[in-house]
Write a structure and sequence with these properties.
By secondary structure, the chain is mainly α. The protein is built from twelve helices and four strands; from the N terminus they run ααααββαααααββααα. Strand 3 and strand 4 form a beta hairpin. The protein is globular, with a radius of gyration of 18 Å.
Amino acid sequence: MLTSEQIIVEPREFSSRRQAADYFQELLSPIPPDVLRKDAGIWTWLSLFYFDQICPNGDNNRKVRNDYTYIYMPDESRYFYRHLLFIAWQVKQVAPEYNRLFLDSSLVTLDKLTTEVFKRLYLTRIPCLFELLDRLYWDCSSNRPAKGIVSQHKVSAGDLMHRFPTRIRQLEKTYDLQCLDADQLLEILGDEFRQRAAMSQLQMELSL
């Protein structure tokens, strides 16, 4: 038995991934997080219950995506993070504060930025990671993630898709990244990341 408490799932409309994350965090709070991460049935059932939310029937044309978008596969390392409802809840679990890069977006599709971070468990296990990502990649002038940080075919200085994970892999060989705060990790990342963070800080100051 998952929980002895009664959990009532209600029809809802989610205008963003954040709304879904907030709702599921509260709704499923009686169930231990480790149990929820392994439970294929509950997340797949929730996908069916909220199917019109995650696969809307616009103009009588429903765009159905890959199975793993709706069927939760906790034991499949390539697919578990692609489930639309699970990943909304999971972001809130591992990044309760610094999460606007991942939650201020549509629930209907999974953006490249979220995919690139959450498919790499070695990144999400670093305690200061999400604070640092927020400082590096949030564009305060547009109030959205910075452009070009997850370009598949173009590598740019300090980008998220190519340079950041490569640099983390290098640093974890000689540093205990679990013990660092965001300032300390930024300092050892190198000039390309410090320059990006400085630019983001300037944009934030100008937007105030």
